[in-house]
């Protein structure tokens, strides 16, 4: 044997086998995290379906108002018009598209939000792989974490509210594209001087920043972050000057004839500063709790401490991984700055307001970037063994903890969707239930004023066949099945006395024993003529019906307009699987409100 031969000690063999086992475990955990991210995406789609309603929700009525009171001749003025503290030109374009091509059903808006999040996930995953060079377990872990944060159902208002979601999802997407364009321009200039094709990346950077500016007011924060990133990347003066020039023009246009609707807190005392700090902590900490202010504060502060550690090591990490540092560092600062600038104007509503689900698109982006940068720094410092495994376990633990909150969250989503759809039924029937119509808009008379227009043009909920059943003979529209095919009862029939003619709000439960599920809708007739409609799916105690477990959501509410005391009302359950089948479940005598 040569004297230069290397002897292999048992300790070296043991160390090698240990590293191999750690690598295998890291691979397994990375696939688990990636699968959890994919499951979160599927859950987001389910949330969108569960809470969806074709009826506009609060701010979404602006598209109907535009169609009724302004029209195409005022499109540019309407697009540019200030909305609260914002200029939402881009989200309004989506509203116009939904009105023009999708009959104002809100469905295209919700699908757009999910697609935008998928696009954002693709951009960040591509950046990690191509610009950052991440591979294997590290890339899968990061991608699963990003998917989890972008699609977490804690931001459910952004998945069930089309316009709300657009306003909160578009700015981060535009911010990512803007920073990506800057990084591609930087890489292009490093690879062989500035080629002519490099300017298209700078154009992408600037155009995306403009898109963020005119999606929500916090989009203006993208510009200083771009300038900071350009300086860190040591770009030449020309691209920096171009960004600054367009930024000045864009921000100047944004604030031209700008009106301040919410006066920020003066922050003139230490108590106000402490309150502001608490609001910011709750804003970010509320990603992991739903109502406990103290816990949210603690979690928010913990996040800021982790951020301080990451920032401390960022200079050395930037030298090793400038693209990832800029991409995720800029997004983290964008999310953090959004929470900071939101706080002064919202703290007057109390700390509970910081739990609003629509803010989670920014709070979760903060945690996402924090996690990715932490993973990157651990890898850079050679902590790919046990420390990397611990970080994977922590990520998976957070995902499992979030999953444990899913049931309660889905109940909120279901309750929201049920009540908005019930408000739609009240509008369709003409029942003056103002408390229910508050789910559509804060002023009940506002959506009620558009009913004729919606019906005449077949928009929103009037794209469904149910509203046009009113006044039609039941037997002309449906086929009655056997009484054994369903079960149910009426629990209450309450007269709505706020207007005349008399209307009823009827509640109860129903179960389709043939389809083994709650009915699709409730049909009410007066002497064989369809006079009322209802929505099923409200929560009720579990029942055993004909040997079947009827589950938790058999409750229904129905409305009948213009009810005489001499009329007898019959209630039918409409089958989900057979569009023409109904089954009789109860009869009401309005005169005595007796159920028989």
Notes on the protein architecture:
By secondary structure, the protein is an alpha+beta fold. A hairpin with a 4-residue loop joins β10 (581-589) and β11. It has two domains: 21-53 and 106-258 and 280-404, no CATH class; 465-595, Immunoglobulin-like, CATH 2.60.40. The longest helix is centred in the N-terminal third of the chain and has 41 residues, at 10-50. The strands form two sheets. Strands 1, 2, 3, 4, 5, 8, 9, 10 and 11 form a nine-stranded mixed sheet that branches. It has 21 helices and eleven strands. It has helices at residues 10-50, 61-69, 75-80, 89-101, 107-131, 136-151, 156-160, 162-190, 198-213, 222-232, 237-254, 270-285, 293-320, 322-346, 360-380, 386-404, 406-429, 434-437, 445-448, 451-457, 474-477, and strands at residues 479-480, 486-496, 503-512, 521-526, 529-538, 544-545, 548-549, 555-561, 569-574, 581-589, 594-595.
- Please outline the major beta sheet: 9 strands, mixed
What low-confidence regions span 5 or more consecutive residues with pLDDT below 50?
1-8
Computed CA radius of gyration, to the nearest angstrom: 28 Å
- Alpha-carbon distance between the termini? 102 Å
Strand content: 5-15%
* Helical/strand content category: alpha+beta
Shape label: globular
Task: Kindly summarize this structure in a few lines.
By secondary structure, this protein is an alpha+beta fold. The protein has 21 helices and eleven strands. The longest helix has 41 residues, at 10-50.
